[in-house]
Design brief:
Blueprint (H helix, E strand, L loop, with lengths): L1 E4 L11 E5 L2 E5 L8 H4 L15 E3 L5 H4 L2 H6 L5 E4 L1 H28 L13 H8 L2 E3 L6 E4 L2 E7 L7 E7 L2 E5 L22 E3 L14 H14 L4 E4 L5 H14 L8 E4 L1 H12 L8 H9 L2 E2 L3 H9 L5 E4 L9 H8 L6 E4 L8 H18 L1 H9 L11 E3 L9 E6 L10 H8 L6 E6 L1 H4 L2
Helix pairs in contact: 4-5, 4-8, 7-9, 8-9, 12-14
Bound molecules: zinc ion.
The site of zinc ion (ZN) has 4 residues, from loops.
């Protein structure tokens, strides 16, 4: 038996492990590298095996960093089965074609604007490739051992991460390997707790957050606090959210906050067709999560679903306080970009980052800028001034206009910043991040609770 790590080693994306045993080859997960450009370029490297030689693929869950290379594998000649839990397959039927579409749109954009060194720029794979890959998906329910190739049995156990997410035990002629997949929390609001770990000779475990403990902060209370605070000054809260998992958790939190009157009765918009479809899938798989039928209906009913581009533009233009939940979660694309473009210049608004922000993404730049600005605010005069005045009045420092409120909002990173009117060449870290993203470099107000909501 030989195990080769082809991704998610030294980085957290691109999960892909090759298991070889008595002439058979299995792939455990087949994910995309995401984040920094150097990582994304690894998606273009030739797979270090012949796709025809792979007997089967076992998917732990549907997130693209675990499933997003399947269309490429099928295009390169893989003809075996891809085993996954039924909810994972349902999520993949939406995620993979969408990923192919996005690749095609990115290539078309690069060709129109000549932003690629390749002429013409090509998509990594197309929507059609993804649709072909879907034909290879086959159900393997939880807790049901199945022989994948002679001498190798696989069993999926609930991992509590997203709908359908599994840890996987592989029995290889009496030797057991356990692949954790992405593991959820035992006390997650939505998902059932991960199943207890089964005995194993070897464990391959995800370690994205292996260097820290879960914060004790109540994420729902923190979300309520920032929504109330923002609404009180006439602002809107924009939440870039992952369409699968995080968007549904947010909707459920918003439903609970509204139910107990912890936030004003603001309109909530879910502006992501993908997240809307995903939310309906959660509705159909009630046995896989903790919500009752009534809570599920509440989660779906708390938001106005924004499907069309025209509706999305109307939401973006509205100046009434609201909560806008929109994909993508790391602001790498999608409709959230035009909401950020519209809302970031106005310091009354708040951007809430509620998930892991991979290095190299706009979300990571925004988060980094926010944290740097907040830490400088703790030491500079303007922070003290802010506490006295409790007003969003930027104070000039040597390098930037910068103010923050570490005492009042001590549990979060927050900043309000402005490029120096009198010194146009100096700008604070936040403004630089906005400028890099092509957004107006004037104000931003950003709050980050990513650690509070991380799995
Ligand atoms: Zn995941």
């Amino acid at each position: 038996m030989k195990l080769t790590f082809l991704g998610a080693a030294g980085t957290v994306t691109g999960s892909k492990y090759l298991l070889e045993h008595r002439g058979h080859k299995l792939l455990i997960d087949c994910g995309l590298f995401q984040g920094w450009k150097a990582l994304r370029e690894m998606n273009w490297e030739l797979l270090p095996f012949d796709a025809h030689d792979i007997d089967a693929v076992l998917l732990t869950h549907a997130h693209l960093d675990h499933s997003g290379t399947l269309p490429l594998l099928v295009r390169q000649g893989f003809r075996g089965m891809v085993l996954a839990t039924p909810p994972t397959i349902e999520l993949c039927t939406l995620l993979l074609p969408d990923s192919g579409r996005t690749q095609e749109e990115d290539a078309a954009f690069a060709n129109r604007h000549h932003t690629s060194r390749h002429e013409p720029a090509q998509p990594l794979y197309t929507e059609d490739d993804a649709l072909l890959a879907l034909r290879r998906l086959a159900h393997l329910p939880f807790d049901t051992p199945a022989q994948v190739v002679p001498g190798v049995k696989a069993t999926f156990h609930r991992a509590g991460h997203i709908l359908g997410a599994a840890s996987m035990a592989l029995d290889v002629e009496g030797q057991t390997l356990l692949f954790s997949g992405d593991v959820g929390r035992p006390d997650d609001l939505l998902m059932r707790a991960p199943a207890p770990v089964t005995p194993a000779h070897w464990i391959v475990v995800e370690s994205t957050y292996g260097d820290r403990l879960h914060p004790t902060q109540d994420a729902e209370a923190a979300l309520g606090e920032v929504i109330s605070y923002t609404a009180a000054r006439g602002g809107t809260v924009v939440v870039p959210a992952f369409a699968v998992g995080r968007a549904q958790t947010l909707l459920y939190m918003l439903y609970r906050l509204k139910q107990r009157g912890a936030i004003p009765d603001l309109p909530v918009f879910l502006d992501s067709p993908m997240a809307i479809d995903m939310t309906e899938i959660y509705h159909r798989h009630r046995a896989e999560h903790r919500l009752s039928a009534q809570e599920c209906a509440g989660m779906c009913g708390v938001a106005q679903m924004v499907r069309t581009a025209d509706e999305s533009r109307a939401v973006s233009r509205s100046r009434f306080p609201a909560v806008i939940v929109s994909a993508s979660g790391m602001a790498t694309g999608g409709r959230v970009l035009h909401h950020l473009r519209q809302r970031l210049p106005d310091p009354r608004n708040t951007v809430v980052l509620v998930g892991y922000q991979a290095g190299g993404t706009r979300g990571a730049r925004l988060l980094g800028a926010s944290a740097r600005c907040a830490s400088s605010a703790r030491t500079c005069r303007c922070a003290r001034k802010w506490r006295r005045s409790k007003a969003c009045r930027p104070m000039r420092t040597r390098r930037s206009w910068c103010s923050g409120s570490p005492r009042r909002h001590g549990r979060r990173s927050a900043c309000s910043s402005r490029t120096a009117n009198r010194r146009p060449r100096t700008r604070c870290a936040s403004a630089s991040a906005m400028s890099w993203a092509g957004w107006p470099a004037c104000h931003c107000w950003a709050a980050a609770w990513s650690s509070a909501l991380e799995p």
